[in-house]
């Protein structure tokens, strides 16, 4: 059972994970900047206040996080529960003629840099840095996305898709069947794309966005 302290601890850690103050997290979610202030967590007479389900839903949507991930942040000590890792980092704007992935979809070649990231348990995880304004309005230039191939991608998840022709597509997974995968790209005004399974090299879930 989650306690009042557990829930607020998770919100604090979610803000920290995304490089934000609790006020910054609230603003990012379209909420009043004081929504998550410590002064709002109890009344003057000591009655406990809980964050609303609506505010939690908005925060999860704004950060690309799942409810399960938020619950995971209630457990143990945020700094020691899972040690940080150094992830391969690909700058999308710096991808040249060298192939950045091996046949299994793992990072390969000289295009990769590295970044440190805490609390991650997917050994195949890697990071993508957004370059330019091609992913607006969802992601901005300089945003860092952490991609976890081991996580199952489901309808509505934000994903990175790689075609066998070598294209990388960032978008929302709208539908997948035994024969097709449908993606709605993030780029403003982009139309939904449908890919034959045989034309897709792999698809991986975007687990975190550091904005």
Mean pLDDT across the residues is 85
- Low-pLDDT runs: 77-83
User: What gross morphology would you assign?
Assistant: elongated
Helix/strand structural class: alpha+beta
Radius of gyration: 19 Å
Q: Residue share in helices?
A: 10-25%
Residue share in β-strands: 25-35%
Strands side by side in the biggest sheet? 2-1-3-4-9-5-6-7-8
First-last Cα distance: 31 Å
For the secondary structure, the number of strands is 9
Discrete helix count? 4
> H/E series, N to C?
HHHHEEEEEEEEE
The biggest sheet amounts to: 9 strands, mixed
Give structural notes:
The chain has 211 residues and is α+β, with helices and mostly antiparallel strands. 18% of the residues lie in helices and 27% in strands. The model is unreliable at 77-83 (pLDDT under 50).
Structure characteristics:
4 helices, single chain, 211 residues, 9-stranded mixed beta sheet, alpha+beta, 18% helix
Q: How would you sum up this structure in a few lines?
A:
With 211 residues, this protein is of the alpha+beta class. The protein is built from four helices and nine strands, in the order ααααβββββββββ.
Which helices and strands occur, and which strands form pairs?
Blueprint: H1 4-17, H2 22-28, H3 53-63, H4 67-72, E1 85-91, E2 112-117, E3 126-129, E4 144-148, E5 158-163, E6 168-176, E7 180-185, E8 193-196, E9 200-210
Parallel strand pairs: 1-3
Antiparallel strand pairs: 1-2, 3-4, 4-9, 5-6, 5-9, 6-7, 7-8
